[in-house]
Design brief:
With 420 residues, the protein is of the alpha/beta class. The chain contains twelve helices and 15 strands.
Length: 420
């Protein structure tokens, strides 16, 4: 009989993990507090871009089931927590779901159980918050529960790297806890990387995303003054990328999106200020620059219209691709939203098209959806390419009759096509 694994949270992290573990022969139960989602999953209908419904149905045939009943944890050998940790109002992580999961696990596990937290948070969360709630007053580490942290590294839409072939970092609250977690993940992941402890594993995820956040901010800042100096920053980056050592290309864009880059570095910044009393200035500056990027896009639209003797007030503006990444349906923290809000506040008539998003709202208002990508039905004054989905015909877009602002640097500049 394969080990019974309960995965808490069946979203963008938990469901792919469940499917991969099921493929390796483990008995998987997906626990989630949303009954409608559980019902959908048990019908074999996936809500995740990277998980085809066929893969979910195969897992169901192999024994996967979803439930809202925490009683399933009583006979679990392993419980993995993959719940969201959004930003709280004070800028730190909102750990409500982590705390609730830990309490539920502590109330239901019986016998020695491996408990692993994958939800991103600041260093110390596993040791100071999660573990005490799991163990309570009656359990002890390495006797009643082994506790570890392993940061999720899910990259939605990545065709090359998934759960199986993305190395898994693991740190435990004890050596025994770490070794148990390493042995568990090694059953269905190609490469497992043990680190000194849970704090090191927690910091690994924050370093990865802070690195990206800071470097994206660097090129977004250089973009602005390069335009003022009449320098093609896109050409500069391509040239610099020919260096075979010491350089990694990052490219400008309309802003950062998704759960990780705009959010995760803030956990660390908040922790440093709260515990040590000083600022993590690199992250704070990167956040300032990247949060300003959508406003810069809107300003460029205003400038383009002005150059062609058109007012932004009353202009038709088409946003092409409103997800935060290409070829996925995820609009979490998408920069398209603040761009649209700014343009609407200036009086523009904003439309959108996205093959993955069939209804989109900003500030509670439904944004009109163009009937097709090039919106010949509405004849936009400006089209903003925000996300270069593979479905889009970039050659046709480059020949558009409207002005085009290319925020991704994928179109050849012409009298009507302007790069950000």
């Amino acid at each position: 009989m394969p080990d019974h694994v309960v995965i808490v949270g069946q979203g963008y992290v938990g469901l792919p993990l469940a499917i991969r573990a099921s493929e390796a022969g483990l008995k998987i139960t997906g626990f989630d507090v949303t009954q409608s989602l559980v019902d959908q999953l048990n019908l074999g209908e996936s809500h995740i871009d990277d998980i085809p419904s066929e893969s979910l149905r195969t897992a169901i045939a192999a024994g996967y089931t979803a439930t809202t009943s925490p009683a399933v944890m009583a006979d679990a050998d392993v419980v993995v927590v993959c719940v969201p940790t959004p930003l709280s109002k004070d800028g730190g992580p909102d750990l409500e779901a982590v705390r609730a999961s830990a309490i539920t696990i502590g109330n239901h596990i019986q016998g020695a159980t491996l408990v692993i937290l994958e939800s991103t948070s600041y260093p110390g969360t596993t040791e100071e918050i999660f573990a005490p709630l799991v163990l309570g007053d009656s359990k002890s580490l390495d006797d009643d529960a082994w506790i570890a942290f392993s940061p999720e590294r899910v990259d939605p839409g990545n065709a090359d790297y998934g759960i199986r072939n993305t190395p898994k970092v693991v740190g435990g609250l004890s050596k025994e806890s770490r070794d148990k977690a390493v042995a568990f993940y090694s059953r269905f992941i190609d490469s497992v990387v043990p680190v000194k402890g849970a704090k090191e594993a927690e910091m690994t995820k924050l370093l990865e995303n802070t690195f990206r956040h800071v470097n994206i901010a660097l090129v977004n800042e250089m973009l602005r003054f390069s335009n003022d100096f009449d320098i093609d920053i896109w050409d500069v980056i391509d040239a610099a990328a020919t260096k075979p050592f010491g350089f990694m290309p990052f490219r400008p864009g309309p802003g950062v999106g998704g759960h990780c880059i705009p959010v995760d570095p803030s956990y660390l910044s908040h922790r440093v200020k709260a515990e040590l009393g000083y600022s993590f200035r690199m992250v704070e500056l990167a956040e300032e620059i990247n949060l300003a990027a959508p406003g810069y896009v809107a300003t460029r639209v205003w400038e383009l219209l002005n150059q062609h003797r058109k007012a932004v007030n009353g202009a038709k503006v088409l946003l092409l691709g409103v997800t935060y990444k290409p070829d996925i349906a995820d609009v979490r923290e998408t920069p398209a939203e603040p761009i649209a809000e700014k343009l609407v506040s200036w009086g523009a008539d904003v439309y959108y098209h996205d093959p993955f998003v069939h209804e989109w709202t900003i500030a509670g208002d439904v944004v009109p959806r163009a009937s097709e990508a090039y919106a010949e039905d509405i004849s936009p004054d400006v089209t903003i390419l925000l996300q270069a989905h593979s479905e889009y015909d970039l050659g046709r877009l480059a020949q558009s009759r409207s002005l085009v602002l290319d925020t991704r640097g994928v179109l050849p500049p012409t009298p009507k096509v302007h790069r950000l």
